[in-house]
Write a structure and sequence with these properties.
By secondary structure, the chain is mainly alpha-helical. The chain contains five helices and no strands. It is about 75% helix and about 0% strand. Bound molecules: zinc ion. Zinc ion binds next to helix 2 and helix 5.
């Protein structure tokens, strides 16, 4: 696991552990979460509370999916660039 991923995970586990998220708290996690999910992680494993919120909140789910597709597209762009610039 690389440092960047570690940082992201630390930022995710910063949230309070009571497990109940409102929309605002949930959205705060999205930036970290989409990066991890885009690299193959499962929301349900990382943050069950967010997973639970997403499953009952269409607004947040939509927001999350939108962010996720942006990050995935972004990563693919980066990968292609890295491939081109590989030593
Ligand atoms: Zn919500």
């Amino acid at each position: 696991m690389d440092d960047n991923l570690h940082k992201l995970i630390n930022c995710i586990f910063d949230i309070h552990p009571d497990g109940n998220l409102d929309c605002e708290e949930c959205c705060k996690q999205f930036n970290c979460l989409v990066e991890l999910v885009a690299s193959g992680a499962q929301v349900s494993q990382l943050l069950p509370a967010v997973e639970a919120h997403l499953s009952c909140c269409p607004d947040c789910r939509e927001e999350f999916q939108a962010l996720l597709s942006i990050v995935i597209a972004d990563n693919q762009g980066l990968l292609m660039q890295q491939g081109k610039e590989a030593e």
